[in-house]
Amino acid sequence: MKIRMLIVPLTLSLIAGPALAEIVIKPVRSGNTNTNRPGIVVPGPADSGFRGTRQKPQVLELLNGDRLQGTFVDFHLDTGATWRHPASKNDLKFDAASISTVHLNPRGALNLPAGQNCTVKFRTGDELVGQLVEINKTHVILSAWYSSNSLRIPREKILSIHPGSRSGGAIFDGLTGLQGWVQSGKNIGAQNMQFKGNIQIRGGFGRVGAAAGWQYSNNSFVSHASGSQIGRNLEKLPDSVSVEFDLSWASSPSLVVYLFADQLKPHKGNAYIVQINNSASCMMMKAPSSQISLGNQSMTTLLRGKTKAHFVISADRKNKTIMLTMDGKMVKKWTHTSAPLGGKGKGIMFVTQTTGMMRISKMRVTHWDGEVPKGNTFSNAGDESMDVIGTSTGKVKGELKGLRGGKVNFNATESLGSVLEVSLEKINFISFAGAKPEKRKLEIGDVRATFSTGGEFIFRLDHWTADRVTGMSPSIGRVDFDPAVFSSLQLNLNKKRGEDY
Prior knowledge:
By secondary structure, this protein is an all-beta fold. The protein folds into 2 domains: about 1-135 and about 145-160 and about 190-210 and about 445-500, no CATH class; about 170-185 and about 230-365, Exo-inulinase, domain 1 (Jelly Rolls, Sandwich), CATH 2.60.120. The protein has 2 helices and 40 strands. The strands form 7 sheets. Strands 14, 18, 19, 21, 26, 27, 28 and 30 form an 8-stranded antiparallel beta sheet that branches. A 7-stranded antiparallel beta sheet has the order 15-20-29-22-23-24-25. The chain starts with 7 loop residues before the first helix and ends in an 11-residue tail after the last strand.
């Protein structure tokens, strides 16, 4: 039987079925293809631009695990999603109830416009980035380049505010894809991969798309296999550096982090090595012919009941010092006096030691000043009874009167009622009295939009076109966003998907 170029009917029949195979149609642009038809290609804001220019194919993922490359055209609540593929003469229509995720794959990470460097974290876990304009008795006003109007956020909806959390100076900021990373591991079932025309059907062993290496998804690296390794060289890596990241796990954590590695291979070359697992953290210094343990620290109490934590590994190569902090608290500080340096390279590498799910997100590399890191952007560092502001010198408790003109007016309890005026650029975080994380109750029609700049926001989506995204949020009301800010869109949040289908 010959496979002809007319592949759309075959594709649609496969999508409609319950099979677990993954279908990837490789984009083929013929001379007759109309390239002037509008589609959502996720450009950046005019005054910021992108780091990187290559546009990766966009991917439509259905609830049963089927995947289709192409271009996302639009979405309407009543009619569903419109999808375009160069091999099809007509746009394809997909019912909204069948869609899992739309991967927009913007061209690299956004360079934020000046001043758009404040993160507002909601009690429900949502995050918005923008310029902090005002805080009054009832609302926080955020100006965001991707919104047509200023965002008025009720104070009671906010967990914490982090001015300058997205500011410049980072050596590496945010996971935007696998490009530039080196990893080991081959796709499970790769030996069964078949090619038929422009249709690529991947056979798997149980899990659709399961792999022995790290996979990229929603600004995160995800692994489901022990021995998954991924690393990269950072040419501007200084001798004193902090590497921070969120780590999530399904059962228990087991991760090995290599820092200052001169080879991106486990057990090779020179490196500092920090091992984190459910019982202890261990620090080692690796040389080509030896490996020296610098001691360990119990993690049992710290990790009990957790499935997620924010880690910072800080190291000073010249002073032979390394520090591990978790959720803003120092776990252990190690020093060594041996002659050779622990690491001689510019590499950072992550290696799993568990078959359970491990997820790395919100990774950032900055220069380390030798102090215990205080700028953990996503820690819940507040006080439930009072407002709190955190600075480089510590926390101040009291009542936040307001913010205008870049100055915070704060009635500190220890200053006997006098109102302090603190410049916003000196503040690491702000939390309000009574701020506690809350579990969101998902409603029919809710979607999870992931930002190219990091963070997620759940709202009810009405329309998504090349120019705007409109919907309704229970936290801030009507929303009107520029689609350029989003890297993916997840629908049908309450439905089974992928491997559970």
